[in-house]
Amino acid sequence: MKNIPVIMIIFGGSGDLAHRKLYPSLFNLYEQGLIHDNFAVIGTARRPWSHEYLREQVSDAIHETHDQVDENEVKAFASHFYYQSHDVTNVEHYVTLKKLAQELDDRYSAQGNRLFYMAMAPRFFGTIATHINDQHLTGSGFNRIVVEKPFGHDLASAEQLNKEITASFDENDIFRIDHYLGKEMIQNIMPMRFTNPLIKNIWSGEYIKNIQITLAERLGVEARGGYYDTSGALRDMVQNHIFQIITLLAMPEPKDLSSDSVHQAKQELLKSLIIPTPEEVKKNFVRGQYLGSDTTFAYKKEPNVDPDSTTETYVAGKTKFTRGPIAGVPIYFRTGKEFKEKKTRIDIVLKHINNPYGQAHSNNITIEVDPESKIYITINGKKIDEPGIRREDLTYVFSKEEMAKVPDGYERLLHDVFVNDSTNFTHWSELKRYWEFIDAVEDAWQKENEAGNPEIAQYLPYRMGPKEADNIFESPTEHWIYE
Ligand code: NAD
Fold first, then answer.
1. End of a domain among 176, 201, 220?
2. Which atom of ligand 1 is closest in space to residue 148's alpha carbon?
3. Which site from 225, 296, 367, 456 is most exposed, i.e. has the minimal number of CB atoms within 10 Å?
């Protein structure tokens, strides 16, 4: 499908996400002809920019992300951009916006198709959705909306936001974006699991001992202290990225690759997600905050952070499903700020099997998602000149040339929105389930906070997080594979 007619309205057109991700991705899709003659973009934000100024910004964004570009192409692309100064809380502004969208629709023959993109602070999402509805901003063609994370702060606020959005949009037209689902190695989980009999047939509690997911960040909260202190690692990373990864690892095989079948398989699985009790939270979860160093602040001393904050910059936890191919297998996860390095990695730890050589090394399947992209499987052979077992990795790795071809997650997902493929977006029923889990943990922590003795591990920066996370394993033979 090429040259999709559409008027795209970006709420937050002067923001960081629009500049770093959306404009460069749209340019690449323009170069591929997916959007070309019949599209226009209205960037909105509060600042009093002109169309010309926005076009300069768009052009800068492309130069910053591309080594070589054809200047005529950049100019032609940028000419499709229009700026509308817009305060999302001012109803009048939606009337002006609607008029501009209609004018551009006529000029570009966009066939009444509208794509709304919420690229601003999440506290405004509900207001925007409400005014799209009461000011009738939707067009006569397709109407789709992309909603950035976080989708709500807890289940109740997510339900409220969903209600506001579904007043104007059908579930099929709501694209709850999680850029992790656009990452190359995350998209490799399904083919890896379902197309190789060696892997497919051991994907069960009989052979898998546990699964471990690590999303380690090197940076602290930086300038985002104010926002972060109202969120924390559990809401910021587990509710979306980590649960998306868990779902892809644990879901049953979908009957085909259609969006409906993939979502059906995920929903089937999520019904059996075990929601932890307060006792289980106490036993199976660790929350932590980073300490300071000679050159960096402790979390509680960061600008705009409450000095008595109980917000976690680190969380480790455990989850399980009662159904699906790996029912009963513990899935451990951890994420946090100020780890020793930035890394996203999944370790599938296989059980030891009895063998005539005695205890062999443990065998794992590891998927490195970031910063490198590779899968490796440990395989055992014999040592050359002495008795015993030697362990080597068989690696599936991308060449530099291949990596250069991998599109950014945002480009991939925007492409999917244009072609109406919601496979790699979060369905409401999935999101709801994730929030039920997160709320159970948050509630248990809140009660601990109120009782005045919260257990919040303080960890040294730029290492592997708090040592308390070594104690969440079910058996003494388990430990973190990535150390
Ligand atoms: P940002 O603060 O850089 O941009 C916010 C935008 O909203 C700006 O254009 C600002 O002018 C506009 N704005 C603020 N108040 C307004 C008002 N009252 N009326 C109209 N416009 C107003 O934020 P960002 O980093 O671009 O993030 C936007 C969204 O994308 C957030 O939901 C964030 O969680 C999500 N996100 C961002 C990134 C990223 O890399 N920046 C990555 C993933 C998700």
1. 176
2. 32
3. 296
Q: Which residues of the chain register pLDDT less than 50?
A: none
End-to-end CA separation in angstroms for the chain: 46
Q: Which of 258, 11, 279 is nearest to 128 (CA)?
A: 11
Quote the ligand 1 centre to 413 CA distance (angstroms).
18
Question: Structural domain tally of the chain?
Answer: 2
Hey, what are 172's tokens?
């099929």
Q: How far is CA 428 from the centre of its chain?
A: 15
Q: Where would I find the H helices in 121-242?
A: 125-134, 155-166, 184-187, 189-195, 197-200, 225-228, 233
Q: Residues 301, 447: contact at Cβ < 8 Å?
A: no
Check whether residue 121 and residue 257 sit in a common domain: no
Q: Which residues pair with 389 in a beta bridge?
A: 382
- List, for residues 282-324, the tens digit of each pLDDT value: 999 999 999 999 999 999 999 999 999 999 999 999 999 999 9
Catalytic: which of 19, 86, 241, 415?
Answer: 241
Q: What is the pTM of this model?
A: 0.96
Question: Do residues 289 and 428 both lie within one domain?
Answer: yes
Calculate what percentage of the chain has a pLDDT beyond 90: 94
Question: Distance, CA 61 to ligand 1 centroid (Å)?
Answer: 16
The angle that helices 243-250 and 428-451 make with each other, rounded to 10 degrees, is: 120
Under 8 Å CB-to-CB from 94, ≥6 apart: which residues? 86, 131, 132, 135, 137
Same-domain status, 146 and 200: no
- Neighbouring CB atoms inside 10 A of 45's CB total 22
Residue 241 annotated to the active site: yes
Closest CA to 12 of 130, 143, 146: 146
- What is the DSSP-derived secondary structure letter of residue 346? E
CA of residue 119 to ligand 1 center, whole Å: 5
- Taking CA atoms only, the protein residue closest to ligand 1 atom 37 is 17
